Amino acid sequence: MQLAVNAGNFVADVVNDRRSSEQPPDRVIGRVIGCDGSRATILSTVSIGNWLASDAWSIGKLVSINLGRTRIVALVYKVHAVQTAWNDEAENAIRIEVEFLGEVVERPHAPTRFQSGISEYPPIGAIAHRIRAADLAMVYDLGGRKGVVIGQITQDASIDAMVDVEGMLSRHFAVLGTTGVGKSSAVSLLLRKAVSVRPRLRVLILDPHNEYASAFPDLALTIDGDALDLPVWMFKQDELADVVFRGRAALDDEPDILREAVTQARARYRAPVAGDLARDLGSSLLKRPLDGGGPRAASADTGTANQGQDSTTPFRLKDVFAAIDEMIGLHEQRWPRHALRSLRVRLEALHADPRYRFMFGRAAMHESMAPILGQIFRVPLHGRPITAFQLGGLPGEVVNAVASVLSRLAFDIAVASQGAMEVLVLCEEAHRYVPSDPKLGFAPTRQAIARIAKEGRKYGCYLGVVTQRPGELDPTILSQCSTIFAMRLANEKDQQIIRSAISDASASTIAFLAAIGNREAIAFGEGVATTMRMRFSALQPHELPAMGSRKAVEDGPRFEPTLDDLVRRIRA
User: Fold this and answer.
1) Which of 106, 311, 376, 453 is the most exposed place for a label (fewest CB within 10 A)?
2) Is the pLDDT assigned to residue 292 strictly greater than 80?
């Protein structure tokens, strides 16, 4: 059935594409009365009980403007009545503001397709109508790219929301949204889809809230403060200094003394003196690192040229103490004795602190990177490609340094594998590690994450950014994320960040960010066909992330702890 509509000299055929028998046969619902470079104004009429009034002109929905063989697809972003008074007995004129997204093109002997941008602007009087179901599906179709289903389109739940995992990962992605909108559940869903189609992918989650362990019971290895082994010698000089001195006033000479003492300890490990040979026979010689290679220059420089040298040669803490004691005993003092003694006391306190067992306890027995990298980056996989790294149980003053080490190792292992292994670093609460103010945060962590963002895709190292405050995130990092899932954001500054990242053709979509529902998102970028408002699929209860404390409350405590139990756990 066709309906020929004559608007002056403009004639168009409108093919009816009713979605159900209950819909009216006429899909013509308005006419264009104004147009500029990217937007148009449509005039329509509605009345009480008019079925079209509550459907076609809803904010955020797509409509068509018919030009014959071309149909412009436009987004409704504003609706208002022409008159200030409403007449219940007659039709009321309304103005609809729409933004052009692209066009559906029909060509003889060629498949109908959707393309972004428009080749022809609508004339005054052009017909606007409800978008066809087939056209709507075509708008969100990935074309020749292979995609996975992550949810449904908000406008029509019968149309799947698809994402191209290759495009999403290779150019990094971000999930943004305020607390309680389903951000962590969306991340869990995306990770499950990613590992299902990328068998070589390893995922390292920097989890500050300890909430992802419950989300991947079948796919993840959980590493907390008790299970973590990260020897002190794997920390670069600036990372170690952050652990030793952060939050504590350091004497002027202490950082330099630490650098020299560690350098001497590394040198002793590589070439033990005669006294060490006699004392450590059967110990030091038998514990040479399998991956250490030949002799290396012991450099304390943290510049680009020596980034890896000060973390590839192991050292023993007792050799650090010995180097400090030798400095104290020198007749001609290079460093003040009170500074030397102060540093020794600091190191002794850290060594004795049970919270730092992951650095100085059994971790100190590792003198090879192999078991550390094998555990963290799942080599071999053993069916668990995800590592949920629970940072919540670590001392607050070492979290940044640990995040720096892990991010740096992720990049290094991707480079060393020469593309055989792909690594995704998912950074939860990313604004903590790469804040917008360069004076805040920890510089080595910022550098490690920025290196993945800028260079990682060449080597198969990808970045996933998750934050509830994109306005506090380094804009350079966010600009490297080519696929963004923006969930509800009420803060104007946060919305402005998204507005600057989205294409002009979809800028009005950002107006919905303050009002979209839970699990809903505005998705745009390389991983999707076009900007879309979609709702993430619901996960099964056993796949939902949950903070450890919340899960304990939901499951119910097995016993009521005593005051002594609480004190002991706090001190542990």
Assistant:
1) 106
2) no
